[in-house]
Amino acid sequence: MRNAATLSLSKTGFARGNSMTENLKKTVSRRLAVQRRTGLSRSTIYAKMAEGDFPRPIKLGKRAVGWLDSDIDEWLESRPITFVEP
After folding, report:
1. pLDDT, tens digit only, all 86 positions of the chain
2. CA distances, 48 to each of 2, 54, 55 (Å)
3. Where exactly are the structural domains of the chain?
């Protein structure tokens, strides 16, 4: 996947050595991938974040953020399933 990256995070949340017992594998998606997965626009994502109704991103660099796929999964699963009547 083009907009996803894998981070190795320690129990404290900071990237560390390669020990699999200490580190957790987390997959991170950038904004466009999150938009595609959720069907939400950029402005809606940020509005929902301001309301506390959407996961906050993590900092990847000085000017880059991404969302943990596990956070997006949990958010999607928490949404009620509503079908549109034809």
Report:
1. 455 555 555 444 445 445 454 456 789 999 999 999 999 999 999 999 999 999 999 999 999 999 999 999 999 999 998 888 88
2. 25, 5, 9
3. 4-74
| Sign of the C-alpha dihedral computed for residues 26, 1, 62 and 54 taken in this order | negative
Count CB atoms within 10 A of the CB of residue 35: 16
- HSE-up (13 A, CA, CB side) for residue 40: 16
Write down the pTM of the prediction.
Answer: 0.69
Beta bridge partner(s), residue 15: 9
Angstrom distance (rounded) from CA 85 to CA 12: 47
Structural tokens at position 57: 């991103």
